[in-house]
Amino acid sequence: MSKLILHNDDVNSTTKIASALIKCLDYELPAANQIIILAEGREKGVVIKEGDFIELYMAQSCFEELNIITELIA
Length: 74
Known about the structure:
Elements: E1 2-6, H1 14-25, H2 29-40, E2 46-51, H3 53-65, E3 70-73
Antiparallel strand pairs: 1-2, 1-3
């Protein structure tokens, strides 16, 4: 199972990150806000989704288009 990790970059606003989570992963706002809270406290990032590599690769591409740093672990 692959994992998509969101890194805390201190560049993007929480609003932009929440919008990206909604757009790229189809999350609801409360779930997006919870992930932001988790990511803010971790230097190494937080797993935002686990699943099929291809699905997560497409999500990672969406985040990249928005200049948000994610990491895909196969």
